[in-house]
């Protein structure tokens, strides 16, 4: 798969996720089939299958062979990620990284109520991120939050940043009403 194909698949998945969250496809109802998604978006049926499997892995849809793709109920989880800078020193790009993460949270239909920043007395080499994720399960919420942060830290050039995501501490819990 080329980087262009991967970007197109990610964009179609983000769009379909947004349509699900907007209520275009209600919980328990059918989401577009692989063929319908391919026809509506102009991607190949194989790529449409990848999109649907991505959403299934995120706990948003259930793929029922021969029956269709069904929207699953979602739950809210608060995910906190504490990042550390590799050099443990203040980075001049801190504001840019914070803005990129906040932008990624704002652009994700499954995410809301995100905060990025430091607290008084916190080392400038630390960056806490908290986000509310609405998805099918706790594992999917953590994965989506980490993917949002990972993508934002990589930036538009795709190069890894100095922020240590592998060593990040992650806490997640169901959000109570």
Question: Could you explain the architecture of this structure?
Answer:
The chain has 177 residues and is an alpha+beta fold. It has 2 domains: 3-71, Arc Repressor Mutant, subunit A (Orthogonal Bundle), CATH 1.10.10.10; 75-174, Alpha-Beta Plaits. It has 5 helices and 7 strands, in the order αβααβββαββαβ. It has helices at 3-21, 34-41, 45-57, 94-107, 138-154, and strands at residues 30-31, 61-64, 68-71, 75-85, 111-116, 126-135, 163-174. The strands form 2 sheets. It has a 4-stranded antiparallel β-sheet, with helices on one face. It has a 3-stranded antiparallel β-sheet with strand order 1-3-2. Strand 2 (61-64) and strand 3 (68-71) form a beta hairpin. The longest helix has 19 residues, at 3-21. It is globular and about 50 Å long. The model has no long low-confidence stretch (mean pLDDT 81).
User: Would you give the CATH topology of the largest domain?
Assistant: Alpha-Beta Plaits
Tell me the strand order in the biggest sheet.
5-6-4-7
How much of the sequence is in beta strands?
Answer: 25-35%
Task: Tell me the overall shape.
Answer: globular
Number of domains: 2
Name the CATH architecture of the largest domain: 2-Layer Sandwich
Mean pLDDT: 81
Poorly predicted regions are none
Number of strands: 7
How does the helix and strand content classify structurally?
alpha+beta
Just give the CATH class of the largest domain: Alpha Beta
State the helix count: 5
Whole-number radius of gyration? 17 Å
The proportion of residues forming helix, as a percent range, comes to 40-55%
What's the N-to-C terminus distance?
A: 42 Å
Order of helices and strands: HEHHEEEHEEHE
* Major β-sheet annotation: 4 strands, antiparallel
